[in-house]
Amino acid sequence: MAITNITVISHTYFYLLGIPGLEDQHIWISIPFFTSYIIALLGNIFLIFIVVTDHSLHEPMYIFLCMLAILDIGLSSITIPKALTIFWLNYGGISLDGCITQLFFIHFTFIAESGILLLMAFDRYIAICYPLRYTMILNSSVIIKLSIVVYMRSIVTIFPMIFLLKRLTFCKNNLLPHTFCEHIGLAKYACVSIHVNIWYGLFVLLMTVVLDIILIVASYCMILYAIFRIPSQDARHKALHTCGSHICVILLFYIPGVFTSVVQRFGKQIPPHIHILIANVCLLVPPVMNPIIYGIKTKQIRNRVYLLLFQRQS
Predict the structure, then answer these.
(1) Is 123:46 a contact under the CB 8 Å cutoff?
(2) Is beta strand 175-176 parallel, antiparallel or unpaired with respect to 93-95?
(3) Would you say 79 and 283 are in contact if contact means Cβ atoms under 8 Å apart?
(4) How many structural domains are present in the chain?
(5) Does 242 reside within a domain?
(6) Which of 294, 311, 282, 314 is nearest to 46 (CA)?
(7) C-alpha to C-alpha distance for 225 and 280, rounded to whole angstroms
(8) Which residues on neighbouring strands pair with residue 295, listed in sequence order?
(9) Which of 50, 239, 307, 309 has its CA 20 to 30 A from that of 105?
């Protein structure tokens, strides 16, 4: 009886296709990508510069804002240059290790941003509910420890994905219809079971982003309860105004992500290129809009920008 040896080839090199179905529009699609990248870089760098150079802004709220801006710069730089390479040069080649590295930093950044938004909600809770103890509770030591916890949580939860992906054999295809690599998007091209990857991805989502959303909502319930107990209408208005920019950033960060998840699960009739465009919007919009929102709605930052841009030298 003859025994046939079957050699399974595992792909170690992949090709990101950009947005399949809209290849002839790649040049035009690249314009908002490039514009968004420039705005995100300049806006967030400028925001960091303002906070760092103005000692009156060296408060927990603005420190967390700087951390958010740094993550926004990282998220844009991880994804958009590769997408532009695909759009402009029609080259989406990426090694397996490069793909895993990219998706690691994308997921790490997303979870870290969610953690920073939770810290900012905690900051607003302490500022409004315990104003006299604000500086004592959120001192520099506490801020450093909380920041380390946020970054370590992201690393610890995402790091196992590297091994979960490295164990897979990719023999189905090496053409990825997307502009960037992501966990399940890569894993589904394996020729072995990926149930562990799916369940672990769900576990990470529940223990990080979903938990953060629950805690943020709980924080703002307590904040609103405290605000509406303030007898002075002006004081209530001021307290609500201080939370306005943060609430806008929270909605801008979570709503597109939730919308994307719903569309991917239940919008099977929606063309694939629409799914890819929506996923890219989720990565493009927050880095662009965060500095604009804080620049417009935060009086201290707005005044500082005005002084830097419009004040004439005497």
Answers:
(1) no
(2) unpaired
(3) yes
(4) 1
(5) yes
(6) 294
(7) 37
(8) none
(9) 50
Kindly indicate the confidence band of residue 254, based on its pLDDT and cuts at 50, 70 and 90. confident
Domain encompassing residue 261: 13-301
**Domain holding 133: CATH number?**
1.20.1070.10
> pLDDT tens digit string along 170-189?
887 888 888 999 888 888 88
3, part of any domain: no
Mean pLDDT of 155-176: 90
Q: Is residue 172 part of a domain?
A: yes
The two structure tokens encoding residue 207: 């223990």
The predicted pLDDT at position 3 comes to: 45
DSSP string, 115-132: HHHHHHHHHHHHHHHSGG
Model pLDDT, residue 218: 92
The verdict on pTM exceeding 0.85 is yes
Tell me the pLDDT band of 1, cut-offs 50, 70 and 90.
very low
Query: For residue 144, what are the contacts with CB-CB under 8 A and spacing of at least 6?
Result: none
Compute the distance between CA of residue 187 and CA of residue 200 in angstroms, rounded to an integer: 12
Per residue, the 3-state secondary structure of 229-295, as one string, reads CCCCHHHHHHHHHHHHHHHHHHHHHHHHHHHHHHHHHHCCCCCHHHHHHHHHHHHHHHHHHHHHHHH
Q: What is the mean pLDDT of the chain?
A: 85
